[in-house]
């Protein structure tokens, strides 16, 4: 996806034509690189823009954003990152995981990069250290995969008879590959057996859900992925059609009818990315900006969906829930 937002001069009403931008370097340009379209995750884009505003930058007044989306196809990311480099953007906001961040870093060692990733960025090789990133990139680590053991425990409480848990992961996810063994160990401690299921990059969600019953899956855990988040309505509809209890990684799944979610508050993380982008635009170096580690998680339960599934949500879960939808 390509979309340009062009703005007027500060204090004036004239709009500079795109073609004259090189002659009139009026405002900085942000490159927004994502695996999925920003329109598929509007609350996160809004949070990013809010962070920019808090840093003093408003689209339509003193900043331009060039959007590049891979439309769920990771193989497109390197070319899109190269386009942003060619445009000489002032900073790249790489959102939605390790793949966009890696594509941006492979494309440039000079343009500052601010990322969101659901993994340890040091282990992934994106930065040298959390406190001193050391290169041209910094951002927010959601540590999404590190709380999957807690999600498995929640499923154990919710479906205590569930011996077989399906884990839906984005096909080819390097982050999941690094944490799969830890998840299996956590599941074994609960007496659970994991069935790993992959979707995206050619693997169809309908096929995945159709395979649950034949594989004896009692409940499903959806891991963090922009690909899944952009298809949350489809995932929730499939869960209802197949009558399977599903635990999702964040609240937006539950607000559209999903059963339960436990995960990082993504909106705060994207707002932090916007703030960091603003600080970079003001002259700070990513190498000196510590990677922010998101630590606050929230538990959301939809009792209406639980009733439709014939599930009694334990009081222990309801008492810990940040929000209960009735």
The total count of strands amounts to 14
How many domains? The number is 2
- Write down the overall geometry: elongated
Q: How many H/I helical runs?
A: 12
Query: Which structural class fits the helix and strand makeup?
Result: alpha/beta
Oligomer: single chain
CATH hierarchy, class of the largest domain: Alpha Beta
Order of strands, main sheet, comes to 1-3-2-4-5-6-12
Mean pLDDT: 88
Termini separation: 38 Å
| CATH architecture assignment name of the largest domain | 3-Layer(aba) Sandwich
The largest sheet is: 7 strands, mixed
Radius of gyration: 21 Å
* Named CATH topology of the largest domain: Rossmann fold
The CATH H-level homologous superfamily of the largest domain: Response regulator
TL;DR of this structure?
The protein is built from 12 helices and 14 strands. The chain is α/β, with parallel strands linked by helices and 326 residues long.
Characterization of the model:
Helices cover 35% and strands 21% of the residues. It is built from twelve helices and 14 strands. The strands form two sheets. The chain has a seven-stranded mixed beta sheet with strand order 1-3-2-4-5-6-12, sandwiched between helices. It has a seven-stranded mixed beta sheet with strand order 8-7-9-10-11-13-14. Helix 4 packs across helix 5. The N terminus is likely disordered.
């Amino acid at each position: 996806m390509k979309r340009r937002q062009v703005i007027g001069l500060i204090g004036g009403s004239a709009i500079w034509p795109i073609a004259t931008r090189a002659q009139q370097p009026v405002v900085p340009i942000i490159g927004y690189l994502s695996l999925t379209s920003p329109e598929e995750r509007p609350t996160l884009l809004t949070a990013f823009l809010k962070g920019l505003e808090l840093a003093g930058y408003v689209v339509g007044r003193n900043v331009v954003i060039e959007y590049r989306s891979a439309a769920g196809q990771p193989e497109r990311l390197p070319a899109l990152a190269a386009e942003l480099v060619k445009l000489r953007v002032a900073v790249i906001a790489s959102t939605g995981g390790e793949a966009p961040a890696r594509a941006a870093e492979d494309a440039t060692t000079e343009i500052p990069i601010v990322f969101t990733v659901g993994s340890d960025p040091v282990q992934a090789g994106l930065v040298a250290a959390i406190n001193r990133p050391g290169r041209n990139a910094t951002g927010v680590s959601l540590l999404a995969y590190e709380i999957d053991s807690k999600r498995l425990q929640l499923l154990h409480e919710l479906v205590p008879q569930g011996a077989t848990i399906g884990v839906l992961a984005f096909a080819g996810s390097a982050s999941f590959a690094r944490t799969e063994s830890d998840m299996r160990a956590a599941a074994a401690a609960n007496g659970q057996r994991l069935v790993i299921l992959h979707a995206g990059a050619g693997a169809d969600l309908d096929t995945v859900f159709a395979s649950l019953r034949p594989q004896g899956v009692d409940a499903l855990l959806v891991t963090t992925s922009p690909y899944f988040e952009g298809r949350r309505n489809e995932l929730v509809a499939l869960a209802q059609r197949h009558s399977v209890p599903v635990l999702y990684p964040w609240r937006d799944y539950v607000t559209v009818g999903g059963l339960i979610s436990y995960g990082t508050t993504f909106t705060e993380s994207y707002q932090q990315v916007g703030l960091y982008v603003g600080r970079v635009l003001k002259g700070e170096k990513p190498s000196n900006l510590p990677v922010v580690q998101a630590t606050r998680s929230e538990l959301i339960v939809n009792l209406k969906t639980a009733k439709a599934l014939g599930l009694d949500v334990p009081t222990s879960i309801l008492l810990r829930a940040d929000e209960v939808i009735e």
